[in-house]
Design brief:
The structure holds two protein chains of two kinds.
Chain A lengths: L1 H16 L1 H38 L2 E5 L5 H12 L4 E7 L1 H11 L4 H10 L7 E6 L5 H9 L8 H4 E4 L1 H47 L1 H9 L4 H42 L3 H7 L1 H25 L5
Antiparallel strand pairs in A: 1-3, 1-4, 2-3
Chain B lengths: L1 E9 L5 E10 L4 E5 L6 H8 L7 E6 L2 E2 L5 H8 L2 E5 L10 H11 L4 H14 L15 H13 L5 E5 L7 H16 L3 E6 L2 H7 L2 E6 L2 E6 L7
Parallel strand pairs in B: 3-8, 3-9, 6-7, 7-8
Antiparallel strand pairs in B: 1-2, 1-4, 4-5, 9-10
Classes of the chains: A alpha+beta, B alpha/beta.
């Protein structure tokens, strides 16, 4: 226990006394954590936009004019229970007609033709949203077949618009999955670059101390006694950089919230402030682990003598 | 105490740093190793500390072959040896007090022991007033006295002083030699490497002369002959 306390104390003292080196290391770590935080915010914007697009995708089942409502509602209940279905909204024939009239209120010819018929030519329909865009195809196939959800369901279904929208849905699906893959790739590349830069900065900081490491070993200090304070210093770099980064992103996110919400779709100020604790913990853990591991790796080669 | 058995060291094939060294140092001895620069003095003492490995031969500290030691045991061996170097090798980010305390922490001394022993040894080397100074705030002589204080704090069985007076003026050189003699008088074995004739003759004890990596003289009466 006393050894651990000594190691922690030595790490703090060394951090304080190695002014310029500590400053440089914290600065680089802050840049790294800023990259990570930016990636978190960009991913949030990307996911928000993708979800917005996904929200706009659905399939509609149009029912025949004569379809009995009880059968339609029974089908709706069965569909709602399917695991891939997020929601199923029923619009009755009457509501459908009212919506049609409202939509064409300025189109006198259409309204006059409708009045001429003197009966509702429109059937009801069911709007179905799946949990994921990729599930629409299987859902449409399920609807098309006489699947036993409700007996005689294929008799009341007029048409399902999935196949009309298939090309658009497929393209959207591939754009979404491509954007997500690209996001992961860009994230990985940026994080790897940042980690390499941080690792090298800490290596440089430890390289400056290589003589001292040799002296410590010569006076009989164990590997852990030599390595420990450097790892504590690495951890301190991470903690200090986390505080600086978190605070820097408050005004930055406010600015982005005020000026870029229209462009990004997501208000980054609200997102950042409402997820502040989670982001703080995430970048804090990342920074501390990066600092400790970088120090651990960098010091290894000087401990052999 | 220390036994070199047919030790050779080659950094390259043409010029050996050390060649067929057979040497015994007994407990309590004060041995001066002299020779020109490049004669192999530093290589020889580095081998006792296992900082360098021999190309051939063996080096024993008591009955232990130092180059067969695993890391943990090597650390324990080094705790039994105090070292003093020409370039002092102090920890520049630590004060005089902390430099000595570090050596005590390395052997597991308690905070109470550190607080009581460090002022004592600083007083012994006349550095009480410099306790909270960093090495860069001290003169060469003071830094070397601090290095000696660090070397003796754990009461080692052996002190290795590698050219300890190389960077010092005659007054400081004299002081350092007197301290080393006093340490030896108290029973600690001392191995001193130097090319300073005055130092060797003021010590007046066993002198080993190295030339091109070979022992060419081993006198018991402290003569500097090159």
């Amino acid at each position: 226990m006393i050894k651990i306390l000594r190691i922690i104390k030595a790490g703090f003292i060394s951090f304080k006394r190695s002014g310029t080196i500590s400053f440089a290391s914290v600065l680089i770590m802050t840049v790294t954590l800023s990259v990570v935080t930016s990636i978190i915010l960009l991913q949030a914007s990307l996911n928000f936009s993708l979800n917005q697009i996904k929200e706009k995708v659905d399939i509609t089942i149009y029912f025949t004019v004569k379809a009995p409502e009880s059968q339609i509602l029974s089908l709706k209940d069965s569909i709602s229970k399917l695991p891939e279905v997020q929601s199923a909204t029923y619009v009755s024939a009457e509501e459908s007609l009212a919506l049609f009239r409202a939509r064409h209120s300025g189109d006198y010819a259409t309204i006059a033709a409708l009045d001429e018929i003197n009966e509702n030519p429109l059937g009801g329909y069911l709007n179905i949203k799946a949990n994921d865009v990729s599930q629409y195809e299987s859902l449409a196939e399920t609807m098309k077949a006489d699947n036993g959800l409700v007996s005689g369901a294929d008799n009341i279904i007029d048409k399902i618009n999935y196949h009309d929208n298939k090309v658009v849905i497929d393209r959207l699906n591939s754009i979404i999955s491509g954007a997500q893959k690209l996001g992961v790739l860009v994230t990985l590349i940026l994080i790897i670059i940042s980690v390499i830069i941080t690792l090298n900065t800490i290596r440089l900081a430890i390289f400056i101390s290589k003589e001292e490491i040799g002296v410590m070993r010569l006076v009989g200090a164990s590997r852990n006694a030599v390595r420990g304070p450097f790892m504590v210093e690495g951890l301190i770099y991470g903690v200090v950089a986390t505080f600086i980064t978190s605070l820097l992103f408050i005004p930055a996110s406010i600015w982005m919230g005020n000026n870029m919400t229209g462009f990004l779709g997501l208000n980054l100020k609200d997102y950042y402030l409402s997820n502040f604790v989670q982001i703080f913990v995430l970048i804090g853990l990342f920074g501390m682990i990066l600092g400790i591991i970088s120090s651990f790796l960098a010091i290894g080669r000087y401990l052999n003598k | 105490m220390i036994y070199f058995n047919n030790v050779s060291k080659f950094y390259d094939e043409e010029s050996p740093a050390l060649e067929e060294i057979n040497l015994t140092v007994n407990a309590g001895e004060f041995v001066s190793i002299v020779g020109h620069s490049g004669a192999g003095k530093t290589t020889l003492v580095k081998m006792i500390l296992a900082e360098e490995s021999p190309t051939h031969g063996e080096i024993f500290f008591e009955s232990v072959n130092v180059h067969h030691l695993k890391d943990a045991n090597l650390t324990k061996l080094r705790r039994r040896i105090g070292t003093v170097f020409q370039d002092f090798k102090l920890l520049n980010n630590k004060t005089a007090f902390e430099n000595i305390a570090f050596a005590m922490e390395a052997v597991g001394k308690t905070d109470e022991e550190i607080k009581s022993d460090v002022p004592h040894v600083l007083e012994l080397v006349d550095l009480s007033k410099k306790s909270h100074h960093f090495p860069r705030q001290m003169s060469g002589g003071e830094q070397q006295r601090l290095a000696i204080a660090r070397a003796i704090i754990n009461q080692p069985e052996l002190i290795i002083a590698d050219e300890p007076t190389g960077n010092l003026d005659p007054v400081n050189t004299y002081e350092i030699v007197q301290i080393l003699k006093k340490i030896n008088d108290l029973g600690t074995t001392v191995i001193l490497t130097t090319h300073n004739r005055g130092v060797v003759e003021s010590v007046g004890k066993r002198v080993i002369t190295l030339e091109k990596g070979k022992i060419v003289r081993d006198d018991k009466n402290g003569k500097y002959v090159i």
